[in-house]
Amino acid sequence: MGKLEDKSREKSKRKNLQYAILQTVAAVGVLSIGLVAPNVIKALSKLGIIPNNRQREYITSSASKLVKRGLLFYNGKKYCLTPDGEKLLRRWKFADFKLEKPKKWDKKWRVIIFDIPEKKKNTRNYITTLFRQAGFLRLQDSVWVYPYNCEDVITLLKTDFGVGKYLLYLIVDELENDKHLREDFDLI
Q1: What gap in Å lies between CA 170 and CA 151, rounded to an integer?
Q2: Residue 119 has pLDDT above 90, yes or no
Q3: What is the pLDDT of residues 155-176, one digit of tens each?
Q4: How far apart are CA 18 and CA 26, in angstroms?
Q5: Which of 71, 28, 96, 11 is nearest to 39 (CA)?
Q6: Which CATH number fits domain 109-184: 3.40.50.150, 3.20.20.70, 3.30.70.240, 3.40.30.10?
Q7: DSSP conformation letters of 79-139
Q8: Cα(19)–Cα(157) distance, rounded to whole angstroms?
Q9: Given its phi and psi angles, is residue 135 left (phi above 0), alpha (psi -120 to 50 degrees) or beta?
Q10: Do residues 87 and 51 make contact, with C-beta atoms less than 8 angstroms apart?
Q11: Architecture of domain 3-95 in this structure
């Protein structure tokens, strides 16, 4: 296998381990490497995320990197999640997020309109990617539509990304020429 493939695989493993560490700290509240090691290390080893021969070093190194990035706080014995760590964890969860679809459509469209300034271009692009992954359809530039309730997710996006004043959530009873949308969402 080529060098690029190996490098990509290593980067993916590091991200998975960091995600696992952040999730564990979020679930437990604090993390002591000694306490978590027996259970988490076994699971991470089986998944191929960490090598078997230097497990404890690998986790400690990853946790230290998270501390340097300001995502974890270490008091000499335990790791705690910082607000930035919580924010990153939510963003990673958003990337894998799928909205639940109710059995029956309420015949209302959820329209999301946003005008995020150029200085927040990365945030705008990230939100656009999240909309695509979650199954939203683009009506026009910066106008997205979804047939089911997604207000909670939009509220979280507004809060986590600091775009509340740039993003508008509408519930629309009728949308002109929506046949193609109903077909795309399998509502016909």
Answers
A1: 9
A2: yes
A3: 888 888 889 999 999 999 999 9
A4: 12
A5: 28
A6: 3.30.70.240
A7: EEE-HHHHHHHHHHHHHT------SS--S-EEEEEE---GGGHHHHHHHHHHHHHHT-EEE
A8: 20
A9: left
A10: no
A11: Orthogonal Bundle (1.10)
CA distance 142 to 136: 12
User: Which sign does the torsion angle of CA 173, 179, 184, 188 carry?
Assistant: positive
* Number of helices followed by number of strands (H, E) in the chain: 7, 7
Could you identify the residue written with the tokens 């894998």?
96
Query: What is the model's pTM?
Result: 0.60
- Number of residues in the chain: 188
Q: 167 pairs with which residues across the strands?
A: 114
Report which of 113, 110, 89 is spatially closest to residue 24, judged by C-alpha positions: 89
Domain boundaries, the chain: 3-95, 109-184
